[in-house]
Amino acid sequence: RLQQRVAESERRHSGEIRICIEAGLPLSYLWRDADAHERAVALFGKLRVWDTEHNNGVLIYLLLAEHRIEILADRGLNAKVAPQAWRALAD
Length: 91
Known about the structure:
The structure is a single chain. With about 90 residues, this protein is an alpha+beta fold. Helix content is about 40%, strand content about 20%. The chain contains 5 helices and 3 strands, in the order H-E-H-H-E-E-H-H. It has a 3-stranded mixed beta sheet, with helices on both faces. About 15% of the residues are buried.
């Protein structure tokens, strides 16, 4: 269902939306007491969400074990959308 919603959305804009769902943080993150945000930032790069023509990729990261949602947007969107708007969307 999420995949279908993302595809529908992407037909209406030039950006890329990626959803990444993990049951829990990798052990290497737990050992160094890293959080969901740090993992989302790492995945933003690893999944190449930043690699869009207009710098308008968005990563929606769900960490099920901690009931956390992190939304990261590339600089093309961050210049136009306030951090509070992303937080409100996640909430």
